[in-house]
Write a structure and sequence with these properties.
alpha+beta, Arc Repressor Mutant, subunit A, D-Maltodextrin-Binding Protein, domain 2, 4-stranded antiparallel sheet
Length: 298
């Protein structure tokens, strides 16, 4: 009988306690006919008469009395659970929000956003995992992911988060440029030492340059390939080669003059990251709060 409707059981209990369809209907704020129909459905499903009905009274049968005795505590537990959920709603969003984001986003874009969110929603526990591989965030147990346009799954809802536009810049130290000269065209980088990034998947992306309608992709060589930003920065600042990276990652070094941008007219611009999640319906409270926060923060 696992398919018996809980609402029908609740309707039966209300009528049995009130000993009246009209009395129970008044207490519930519903029609007597809806309660009568619910009891009829329940009796048909159980193949037992639960209430004796006359023009003057409504009384439980023996089966009805037994069911009512067992239902009381169970329905009380359900009501208590619903009241607890209502209290949680009143107290504000809570629970854990798990996000998966690219390493660069987790390091340079997400921190100020996350700090403001945590200050606004102290009841939410935030988990942020930095990962450059593209994964199925739902299958991996995450509530949402952050990726760039070319990595978004087509059936996901996407919301801009952080800068609306970013760019890659080509940089080198003043000492390196003084010793080896300044490239004037991307193709000249093939004659220079270059510091490359490699993801844990083994992919080392080509460097892509755009100037108007012209696009050039190259795979330069050099003394270091690494997935460590710290090692990458140290090598470039030490004058070991040219680098190609997010402008956000090296803004302080550019501002201080420790690194110099080269080929600025070839700098590639691209759309900023997006928060993506599966559905607007029945979202966990913590995710709903984060989505609303990002929308208001735009």
């Amino acid at each position: 009988m696992s398919d018996v409707d809980l609402a029908d059981l609740d309707a039966f209990a209300a009528v049995a306690r009130a000993r009246s369809f009209r009395g129970a209907a008044t207490l519930r704020g519903v029609s007597a006919s809806s309660l009568s129909e619910a009891v009829r459905r329940l009796e048909a499903r159980l193949e037992l008469r639960l209430l004796n009905r006359t023009t003057r009274s409504v009384t439980p049968t023996e089966a009805g009395e037994r069911l009512l005795t067992r239902l009381g505590p169970a329905l009380g537990e359900v009501a208590g659970a619903l009241e607890e959920l209502g209290a949680l709603r009143a107290a504000g969003p809570s629970g854990t929000l798990r996000l998966n984001a690219p390493t660069a986003v987790a390091r340079y874009i997400l921190p100020p956003i996350a700090l403001r969110f945590m200050a606004a929603y102290p009841g939410v526990r935030l988990e942020i995992i930095a990962q450059d591989d593209f994964i199925d965030v739902l299958a991996a147990g995450y509530d949402a992911g952050i990726r760039y346009d070319e990595r978004l799954e087509k059936d996901m809802i996407a919301l801009p988060i952080g800068p609306r536009e970013q760019r890659f810049v080509t940089v080198a130290s003043p000492a390196y440029l003084a010793a080896h000269g300044t490239p004037r065209h991307p193709s000249e980088l093939l004659d220079h030492a270059c510091i490359r990034h490699r993801f844990l998947s083994g992919v080392s992306p080509a460097w892509e340059f755009t100037n108007g309608e012209e696009t050039i992709r190259i795979a330069p060589q050099g003394p270091l390939v690494t997935n460590s930003p710290e090692m990458h920065f140290a090598a470039v600042e030490a004058g070991l080669g040219v680098s190609y990276m997010f402008e956000d990652m090296i803004a302080p070094q550019l501002a201080s003059g420790a690194l110099v941008e080269i080929l600025p007219e070839w700098s590639e611009r691209f759309t900023g990251p997006r928060l993506y999640y599966h559905s607007r319906r029945h979202m966990p409270p913590a995710l709903r709060a984060f989505v609303d926060f990002i929308r208001a923060d735009r």
